[in-house]
Backbone:
């Protein structure tokens, strides 16, 4: 996904994956509704209106206070951080409180929950987080053995975070769904080897589809393992578009997410040409299908 400090070191990899995935996958090769037909009918899932702030990273670097104010005016209720753009966490919290914004989660690197755990806990608490979400697994660890090692790391970090009143989570891309030796995927290894009491998952609904897997099946098979989702829409050609402008079946997906235990949904666009316009359009769509009590 991204570096939480807003740098581009990992984005170049993700962008290559995105382009490669767009060429390799066609609309017909990725399930649209999957298990949706087997899910009980019902109202779409209802969530607070949220956004992953990486979408607005350039604006936030230029004007953190003003950009948060604009999000609040658009009706945003929750934000998910990917770094604090050079501002102390206490200062950022005052801005959140001023605009009645909640920040239930923030993204970080693996080293932030191993080598810098105390600092990570302090920052998370200052911002009002409940979830600390690891956003990336390095290339060299994307083997069956590497994923099992990561799962052990997550369990240890999750235990320490739980003592501090926080929950560790993991945000996926598409690479976790590639088949490994033995036929398992990295994501399946993480689900199998992490303790549900210590580690939750933030399912990125764009990237699981890009990885050729069915979010409905994961919600059905692993109820209770997911606390958050990223709501990112996909056009027929595999590109990322405003939420509601693509082919993703959002009412069904969000209903399934809610039934599986998800309580926070953040819209996101990795490379929005006009981030505030994206937020405005995507919020308007989400208000139709997924917002409210």
Residues:
């Amino acid at each position: 996904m991204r570096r939480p400090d807003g740098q581009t070191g990992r984005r170049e990899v993700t962008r290559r994956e995105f382009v490669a995935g767009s060429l390799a996958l066609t609309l017909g090769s990725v399930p649209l509704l999957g298990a949706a037909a087997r899910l009980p009918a019902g109202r779409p899932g209802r969530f607070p209106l949220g956004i992953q702030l990486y979408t607005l990273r350039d604006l936030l670097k230029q004007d953190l206070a003003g950009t948060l104010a604009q999000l609040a005016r658009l009706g945003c209720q929750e934000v998910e951080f990917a770094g604090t753009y050079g501002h102390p966490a206490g200062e950022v919290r005052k801005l959140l409180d001023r605009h009645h914004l909640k920040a239930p989660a923030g993204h970080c690197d693996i080293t932030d929950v191993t080598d810098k755990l105390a600092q990570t806990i302090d920052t998370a608490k200052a911002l009002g987080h409940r979830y600390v979400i690891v956003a990336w697994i390095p290339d060299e660890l994307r083997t069956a053995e590497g994923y099992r090692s990561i799962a052990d790391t997550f369990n240890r970090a999750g235990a320490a975070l739980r003592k501090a009143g926080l929950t560790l989570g993991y945000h996926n891309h598409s690479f976790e769904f590639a088949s490994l030796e033995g036929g398992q995927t990295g994501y399946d290894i993480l689900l199998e080897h992490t303790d549900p009491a210590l580690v939750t998952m933030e399912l990125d609904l764009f990237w699981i589809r890009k990885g050729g897997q069915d979010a409905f099946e994961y919600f059905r098979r692993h109820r209770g393992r997911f606390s958050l989702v990223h709501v990112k829409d996909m056009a027929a050609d595999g590109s990322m578009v405003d939420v509601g402008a693509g082919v993703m079946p959002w009412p069904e997906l969000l209903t399934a997410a809610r039934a599986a235990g998800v309580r926070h949904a953040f819209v996101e666009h990795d490379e929005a040409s006009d981030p505030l316009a994206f937020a405005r359009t995507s919020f308007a769509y989400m208000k139709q299908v997924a917002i409210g009590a």
In short: The chain is about 40% helix and 15% strand.
